[in-house]
Amino acid sequence: MTVERIDEETPLLTNTTNKTKTCNVHERRKRAPTPLPKVQISILMLLQICEPITSQSIYPYINQLISELDITGGDERKVGYYAGLIESLFFVTEAMTVFQWSRASDHIGRKPILLIGLAGSMISMLLFGLSKTFWALVISRCLTGLLNGNIGVMKSTIGDLTDSSNRAEGVSMLPVVWSLGATIGPLIGGTFARPHERFPKVFTAPFWKAYPYFLPCLIGVGYVFVAFWITAFAFKETIPKKRRSRILSRASSTDSSENSDFNSRADRPLLLRELFTYRVVLSVSNYVALAFLNISFNALLPLFLAMPLNIGGLGLPPSAIGYIMGGYGAATGIFQFFWFAKINRMLGEKRVFVTGMMVLPGCFMMLPMISVVAQNFGVYALVWVMIAFTMMLAVIMDMAYGAIFMYITASSPTKAALGATHGLSQTSASISRAIGPALSASLFSLSVQEGWLYGYAVYVIFAMLSVAGIFLSQQLPEEVWEEEEEENDDHDINA
Questions:
Q1: Could you say which of 222, 273, 329, 411 would form a disulfide bridge with 183 (CB–CB 3.0 to 4.6 Å)?
Q2: Mean pLDDT confidence for 258-282
Q3: Which of 370, 355, 380, 216 is nearest to 300 (CA)?
């Protein structure tokens, strides 16, 4: 009989630990998902729609609005500079405050921060609709970003309400409702901009001629107003009871000081420097790359659709742009609702994310191809087929958001740091989203003015950046990191 020698050089942890972790991953993927808290999730989805309605309703008319302000001196080629600046300002100011809002939600709860964000959206959108000068537009967009920390807080709340067994289902709903808002928002902007011209028998008052873009802003504010009061009266806080139970258990514990220190770290929000772990940095870096490339494409698309044929656009009116972007949003929502969770379970988070990144070069390169066809043959059936194909690629790309969200949630060092982790990710993404529209729109104008690659250099540049993003996505692990599951004693929260 062979006796295994054990001495001071024998490892305390053998490779059975790794086998156990591998088994845990497979068991977690196979086990039946925990039922989602339907009421809480439904209210959260209601809030999620507010974001794209208020932010994307300006896309169909922003280029026309900039032209009417006469800050370009009548040069249509310069519209991209100012339109990109307006679109970027929201993300610049959001980057300044979103981490603080998300971290505050770890301390005082998610609900108060969500309500502040909704109120800020209403105020800033009303001011945007009443703006008559370029600087008034700048101030209103800055207020939107400064007062709105809801994007990061909502993701943290999803993390509070789900676990590793049902997070794919919960995450799959985020892009669905975002897409619904991204469908409604551009349709509102394209349909109700300049109502005195589109509906002259209804909007006869001089006010609508003086403020031709106030109506779409007012309609968006109306929805946010309803969501505000539903949240105030029906949404249940996801943080305080968990914190109280942890504090009580720690106070009654008689464990050693070492265990007490560990529990203290697990229960308290972490310092900023403690968030910079390898897992968090890798997840956030991939999210930043995706957000930057996606927002750049989203800024280029309406600019490309609106600009005249002779400078590389399609010359479409705001209503047509609204329908295209609304259709794209609807297609994304339908696809995510029916297939994201199934595809994610079948392929895994990494393959889903990498696939989404791999279609981005095609999204950018389709635009100059459409332009060449339109300039040679006019805007006819083939052009619309190519636009539809481009939107299909963008729908596939949107799947990457759900996958990287799951990486970010699992990368949080502790449950108490979930809000701060998502705040850090949203701050980083907001910085990239601030740079993206300004850079892409400016490169569009420069490419046209200077004739770089026949005016198409901007698309080649972003296609090359997309290839770099694909290489970064390959660094993610095959499976999301294991996260410590906590016992959920707050059954009333998950009702």
A1: 329
A2: 68
A3: 370
Surface-to-core class of residue 381, CB atoms within 10 Å of its CB (0-12 exposed, 13-18 middle, 19+ buried): exposed
Chain centre to alpha carbon of residue 491: 29
Q: How far apart are CA 422 and CA 48, in angstroms?
A: 15
Which residue, 455, 445, 367, 454, is CA-closest to 79? 445
Q: Which distant-in-sequence residues (6+ apart) come within 8 Å of 479 by Cβ? A: 25, 348, 349, 350
pLDDT digits (tens, 9 = 90+) for 161-186: 887 667 767 776 777 787 778 778 88
Q: How far apart are CA 161 and CA 69, in angstroms?
A: 46
Please report how many Cα atoms fall inside a 13 Å half-sphere around the Cα of residue 247, on the Cβ side.
7
pLDDT of 469 over the 90 cut: yes
pTM: 0.72
Residue 414 confidence class, pLDDT cut points 50, 70, 90 = confident
Contact between 373 and 386 under an 8 Å Cβ cutoff? The reply is: yes
Can you say whether the dihedral through the CA atoms of 476, 95, 181, 236 is positive or negative? positive
Range of lowest pLDDT (7-11, 69-73, 444-448): 7-11
- Both tokens of 350, joined, read 């990494």
Torsion of CA 315, 318, 324, 326, to 10 degrees: 170
Euclidean distance between CA atoms 469 and 165, whole angstroms: 29
Mean pLDDT for all residues in the chain: 81
d(CA 298, CA 241): 41
Which residues, 6 or more positions from 270, have their beta carbon under 8 angstroms from its beta carbon?
A: 413, 414, 416, 417, 420
- The closest of 332, 416, 340, 368 to 159, measured between CA atoms, is 416
Instruction: Kindly state the tokens that stand for 322.
Output: 């609204």
CA angle 140, 128, 326 (to 5 degrees): 115
